Amino acid sequence: MLGQATGPFEAVIGLEVHLQLKTRTKIFCGCPADPFGAPPNSQVCPVCLGLPGALPVVNEEALDLGLMLALALGAQIPDRLLFHRKNYFYPDLPKNYQISQYTLPLGQGGALPLGGRRVRIKRLHLEEDAGKSLHLEDRTLLDLNRAGSPLIELVTEPDLKSPEEARLFLQRIQALAQTLGVSEASPEEGKMRADVNVSLRRSGEALGTKVEIKNLNSFKSVQRALEYEIRRQTEILRRGERVKQATMGFEEGSGKTYPMRTKEEEADYRYFPEPDLPPVPIREERLLAVKARMPELPWAKEARYLALGLKAQDAEALAYAPAFSRFLDRALALGLVSPTTLANWLLADVAGLLNERGLALEETRLTPENLSRLLALFERGEITSRVAKALLPEVLEGADPEALVRARGLGVVADEEALKGLVEEALSALPEAAKSVQEGKLKAMDALLGYVMRKTRGQAQPEVVRRLLKEALGVG
Ligand SMILES: [Zn+2]
């Protein structure tokens, strides 16, 4: 539909992503980095308030987390970093400048794998967050708790081709950040925010005029804002007019973009090196130490899952769902169940139940041990998949699968379909006894019953087996 709407034009999309780094303290002072829920303006100090004479100190952990993300994406790391002042006036920016990076950022280049392509990363840099403005009817309130929280900004090359792809890219970056543990990357808490830019061009032509859309707070908003903006630009170009360079906002309610302030040119920011922070050398040993801390990357997980025999779609889905892949890896380490059974159940039944209940995997009491034990019963043929599915909700709430099966007699022995199979087996193994029963010698039934009871290790209910034998033999 979208392809048709854009007619002869193709979309060229780039993203700017801000992630809040998961450190204990802010980027240049000792205040808590995550003051969520604290009273307004209680988590501040002279440094993050920008009081005269206060001196910033670089948070080494923020630097390491930033380096880890840059290394994971294959970016070039310079041998020293530089911090710059980006000057602009904004009420929730108490210093009237932001400490950011300009020349010599944390990383340059690199790429994120996406659907067989590589989306190129232009640069990554560290910077401090601003405070928050709360606009009331007749006044604006400021909360500076967030001022100075550590951010990493990641800028892509304009390599994305559709709103869906932009959304998928953000989901991938989120999964990567969460897998690495560098950020909670939760848009709903403002710990992941995106700006997008989009232009249209005829295939093969030079890039068109780009429009930027700022402050998108969810992946869904990114996709909707891009869809709207692509339609808007298509209409302008169809009329033979030109798209004006602009910075737009996005209104959730109407699903429309609207023009915002005209964007500052780079020169307006009067970048200059931060005089209070000397250049930070990045030595080889530091990079090696960060690499040593780096967990397995999602695309390496995907390859490993494929090698275990998982379907391509399942391997990808699990590798980019950090909670699921952690769970799967712990279950795989137990070795009780085959990888494909685990993958199938996690993605279908477990995911379905979580969805139904609006829960995240880690919010349940499901453990890799208990899921493995439940599925092992099923794989060994001791319970049917129907019984396993029926027990899953309770196992999700922390119940012990074997205890449930025992207490309720739910072993395969109580499953009539399974018992019927054993009855058929008994009739062909003991044809003489079967014939005798049909001739009215009911005493011969004991041999057949005994056969089925042995096969079920005595767990079947004899009345049920007796009834099934009678039904199979057509005797009353
Ligand atoms: Zn502070």
Number of strand segments: 16
Mean pLDDT: 92
Helix content range: 40-55%
Strand content: 15-25%
Q: Report the C-alpha radius of gyration, rounded.
A: 31 Å
State the end-to-end CA separation: 66 Å
Contiguous low-pLDDT stretches (5 residues minimum) are none
User: How many DSSP helices?
Assistant: 17
Subunit structure: Heterotrimer of A, B and C subunits.
GO molecular function, one term: glutaminyl-tRNA synthase (glutamine-hydrolyzing) activity
Organism: Thermus oshimai JL-2
Protein name: Aspartyl/glutamyl-tRNA(Asn/Gln) amidotransferase subunit B
Could you describe the 3D structure shown?
It comes from Thermus oshimai JL-2. Heterotrimer of A, B and C subunits. Its EC number is 6.3.5.-. This is Aspartyl/glutamyl-tRNA(Asn/Gln) amidotransferase subunit B. The chain is an alpha+beta fold and 476 residues long. The protein has three domains: 2-286, no CATH class; 296-410, no CATH class; 414-473, Arc Repressor Mutant, subunit A. Helices cover 41% and strands 18% of the residues. It contains 17 helices and 16 strands. The strands form four sheets. Strands 1, 5, 6, 7, 10, 11, 12, 13 and 14 form a nine-stranded mixed beta sheet that branches. Helix 7 (298-307) packs antiparallel against helix 8 (312-319) and helix 9 packs across helix 10. The longest helix is centred in the middle third of the chain and has 20 residues, at 219-238. The mean pLDDT is 92. The site of zinc ion has 8 residues, from helix 2. Zinc ion is lined by residues 26, 29, 31, 44-45, 47-48, 148.
